[in-house]
Structure prediction request, 721 residues.
Amino acid sequence: MDNRQLTELLNQMTLEEKIAQLLQLTANFHEGGDGESQITGPLEEMGITESMVTASGSVLGLSGAQSIIDVQKSYLSKSRLGIPLMFMADVVHGFKTIFPIPLAIGCSWDTELAEKSAEIAARESAVSGIHVTFAPMVDLVRDPRWGRVMETTGEDPYLNSLFARAFVRGYQGASLKEEPERLAACVKHFAAYGAPEGGRDYNTVNMSERNLREQYLPAYKAALDEGCEMVMTSFNTVDGIPATGNEKLMRGILRDEWGFDGVLISDWASIREMIAHGAAEDDCEAAYRAIRAGVDIEMMTPCYVQHLPVLIESGRVDEALVDEAVLRILRLKDKLGLFDNPLRGADPEREREVLFCQDHRNVSYELAAKSSVLLKNEGGLLPLAPAKKVALIGPFAQSEDILGWWSCVGVKEDAVKLGTALQERLPEGQLVIAEGSGVVSVDQAQIDAAIAAAQDADIIVLALGEDSAMSGEGGSRTNIRLPEAQLELVRQLKKTGKPLAAVIFNGRPLDLHGVFDEADAVLEAWFPGSEGGAAIADILIGRVNPSARLTMSFPHSVGQIPVYYNHYNTGRPMNPEKTEERYVSKYIDSPNDPLLPFGYGLSYTTFEYGDLKLSGNEMKANQPLQVRVKVTNTGDRAGIETVQLYIRDVTGEVVRPMRELKGYARLELPPGESADAVFIITEEQLRYHHSDLTQASDPGAFQVFVGPNSRDNLMESFRLV
Prediction:
């Protein structure tokens, strides 16, 4: 349909039908679809009628091709105007084939593979009947206490923006109408959901507009620049106003300034939650604030359907606001091709063929292998030496709980377990497995069995971590160390004197004390997805050389949080060579720096940096500067090095971060070979938000840092003139 036809359709709708298009309900309101159910249960609790359900615009959380076909057909049989439903779901890091959590995907620094994972997730979802995914989540995060760090790609706005674009490309493809095995993407959570006070989910967010624009908004904007069709509001306040009713944020920035004319959806019940925030007296006022802010779809509360008619009749709300919201929804349904084919990609036969197929699992394996970060490897303990007997000990030795919190319709039993994968790869009799402890509990019998297994082995591999419920939404923690039961297991096994290699399965950066200091080697596996056990096993035995790099800093302790690489210097910076100084910005019981910095990660080979050269010591606005560095593989096996470029604006109109990531290059080098990483710095990259919120660069001194992470760099300087 063209815009004229959609407008004609809109004009045929009654006010009740229009407002019902703004209502999103879960699948249980529609299942059966016989039109004869009593207005009891969920309907009665929400205060909505059968006619509202019959005219509602979208469904949340239903999947399965045949189920969606049945509901869509039943719905259309009762629809006066034949406007099809949209089906939406949280397809965050895979549908049936589960990929590593997004934080892990970020650590791959591989946007092409990230895009491929989104394309596969879209294909599996679309053949199962889904039209829209509530992804990507691009919230910038600096606080690992927050459980939803698992859904982000990290603490850096530049890198998050690159991944935001990649995920949108993967989900949406070139044309939703012409590619029915793609999904419309919904970027979330707008805005700044990743900065809650205390790391507590849903909590207050309080920051300056300059910080919001400079650090937190770029990734959302990048997703929209890539064509993302939808935006989801966040639960938090922005400048004291809940995002879902925030006119300045939603109409001022999102729609007027950025020109977004796609669909804006509330997060679950967040319109009604304005009452609890203290920003609305009742459902009526909540509806008033949300529609004025430009929220098109209300997820799982009835404020719109119950109160917009009265608000329009009284003149408080112009019906034109409802019309523009409905028209945006109709446009998206048309872009998806639903008016031509309401069943779109839903195909039970194709579903059986595509879901969890070997090709998809192969990509899950590759991404798990490329997103596991080697954090420590003293004495070259890893990869495991051939002919050495290995004791695999810990609650994750044979755990299926490696998919993560948002694993859609993925099944834990389908996940490749680490112990099983190692058994398949090591000669018979070379591997012994013991549980050692539970995730949060341990008894003496478990310890005794673990020690017995360890004493009969040459090397101990510890499989430790969080269970999936310890991170994710609602999974905030104040203590981000491993549970005491597992730390006790580490202490007891350390006494055996055997070399220890720890593999950590988790959804957030941890305080690794009790493991990092005790183990000879540490591999951060995250929640690695369906093929995680196979990928981790291949890293342990050396078939795969780890290449991932952290995209969130790992703190020394929770007391440092937030700790992140692109911080300011303060007026009394600490001199690392004068640790006895008191009246400087430091802790008296901890280093300032994190245990492991942004960009950090080891390999089974080594790399040397040299010959950092700039094309000049001055830069003009119309003359970009070239940066070149020589990187040499000084080890004995091929490897991938992620060469990272950081810039510091030494003096600004407002203070500037000590380092900002501006580019990176992934070099694959055979042993003994060298290659140059080449970067171009433009004046545009030097711009930032000034105190009046305008963007510009400042003439003056800049420093260029190039290295394997944000801490260990070569440095040169130039001036912008």
Observations:
- DSSP finds 21 helices and 26 strands in the chain.
- The first strand starts at residue 23 and ends at 26.
